[in-house]
Amino acid sequence: MNAYLDLLMYFSIYSFLGWVMETVFASLKEKKLVNRGFLSGFFCPIYGFGAILIIQSSKLIGAAVEDYSASLITNILLSIFLVTLLEFITGALLEKIFNCKWWDYSSNAANIKGYICIKYSILWGLLAFLLVQVVHPAVVQVVAVIPSVTKGFMAVLFLSYVIIDTGKSVIDALSLRKVILNYSGLSINKYYQKVIKYKRFFIAFPNLLILNAGLVNHDIRSIINDRMDKIKTELKSRFQQL
């Protein structure tokens, strides 16, 4: 039982660290704070799943391959394959549901349908190496000192949160899909309100901004930019009145 609690703790920690990494990278690139991830909270479960795959495969390879160097190289190569496969499946599923790529590597060399590319696969390999050699040993030590009762409570709290957040995010995403696909049946005002309501998806995944691009009064990029300009103007006006 304690082993399963440890896995849940690892999943929670790496989901959070993945969110931090994505958010910092996107914020530096956009020069503003960007909350990355499908969920509304501070977690990217795909990183949690990826980390667990790497950790578990590392254990299996370590038990099967005695030579340290061979074990490390095999683990990195397998990690690249598993995490890249996870990214491909996730990207394909999202496009099938929304008829649009949530991220697109088509401009990168050696890509497959824009879901994956050699550049990021190599990056996943580097992150897998750092995870196994540096990060996870430290995380193991921290998790080991947490009492089982406390870990159980934290695991239940985290799972409850993720289930609720995932459920809400899926409902929001499906609602957004309905709005985008059936825009012609909505009033301009209704469509505008829906786009603004779900703008976090567009900010987190800029590639979605091309949906309905160029359509008069239904161009998502124009709607969000217009909204942001109005907010900036309103804030500037308030500061000038102080």
Condensed summary:
This protein is mainly alpha-helical and 242 residues long. Helices cover 74% and strands 2% of the residues.
Descriptive overview:
A hairpin with a 3-residue loop joins strand 1 (111-112) and strand 2 (116-117). Helix 1 packs across helix 2, helix 1 (2-30) crosses helix 4 and helix 3 (68-98) crosses helix 4. The chain has one domain (3-224). By secondary structure, the chain is mostly helical. Strands 1-2 form a two-stranded antiparallel sheet. The protein has eight helices and two strands. It has helices at 2-30, 45-64, 68-98, 118-144, 148-181, 188-197, 199-204, 220-241; strands at 111-112, 116-117. Helices cover 74% and strands 2% of the residues.
Helix content: over 70%
Mean pLDDT figure: 83
Main beta sheet = 2 strands, antiparallel
Rg for CA atoms: 21 Å
DSSP summary: helix tally: 8
Order of helices and strands: HHHEEHHHHH
- Class by helix and strand content? mainly alpha
Q: Give unreliable regions as ranges.
A: none
Tell me, briefly, the overall form. globular
Order of strands across the main sheet: 1-2
End-to-end distance = 59 Å
Count of distinct structural domains:
1
Strand content: under 5%
Protein name: Putative membrane protein
Keywords: Membrane, Transmembrane, Transmembrane helix
Organism: Ruminiclostridium sufflavum DSM 19573
InterPro entries: CmpB_TMEM229 (IPR010540)
